[in-house]
Amino acid sequence: MDECHSCDYTSANGLLNGPPFPPGNLRCLADTSLEVSRNVQRFNGTKLRELREQAGLTREHVAIAIGRSAETVGLYERGKVMPPASLVAAMADELGCPAGDLFTRVALEAA
């Protein structure tokens, strides 16, 4: 058994079927400086529309490229429906931009 002397946490040898913690290598989270990001990336339909228009493409063109209807692309652009990751990548390819360009950083509210 290895112990964290700052918080009295005791670990069991073979945790998760792995080897025992080497002496001195067990670190208590209280002893570390962890910063949890409160920012996430969220799909941005407005950016999809802007990039599509900048590329001179119609909704129909993008729809054909991703195998969906123009109405569905419109739903993505208005933020009514979130596209799956595979379609975000396909749309980005068609628009000639990185998939990250279709996302916006959003701050999470504290719980």
Q: How would you name the CATH homologous superfamily of the largest domain?
A: lambda repressor-like DNA-binding domains
Low-confidence spans? 1-22, 25-34
**What CATH architecture of the largest domain would you give?**
Orthogonal Bundle
Question: Can you list the strand order of the major beta sheet?
Answer: 1-2
User: What number of structural domains do the residues give?
Assistant: 2
| SS summary, helix count | 4
Give the number of DSSP strands.
Answer: 4
Q: Kindly provide the radius of gyration, computed on alpha-carbon positions and rounded to a whole number of angstroms.
A: 23 Å
The helix/strand class is: alpha+beta
> What order do the helices and strands follow?
EEEHHHHE
Question: How do the strands and helices of this protein lay out in sequence?
Answer:
Blueprint: E1 2-3, E2 10-11, E3 39-43, H1 45-54, H2 59-66, H3 70-77, H4 85-95, E4 103-107
Antiparallel strand pairs: 1-2, 3-4
Helix pairs in contact: 1-3, 2-3
How would you describe what is shown here?
The chain is of the alpha+beta class and 111 residues long. The chain has two domains: 1-34, no CATH class; 39-107, 434 Repressor (Amino-terminal Domain), CATH 1.10.260.40. The chain contains four helices and four strands, in the order βββααααβ. The chain has helices at residues 45-54, 59-66, 70-77, 85-95, and strands at 2-3, 10-11, 39-43, 103-107. A two-stranded antiparallel sheet has the order 1-2. Strand 1 (2-3) and strand 2 form a beta hairpin. The chain is globular. Mean pLDDT is 77; it is low at 1-22 and 25-34.
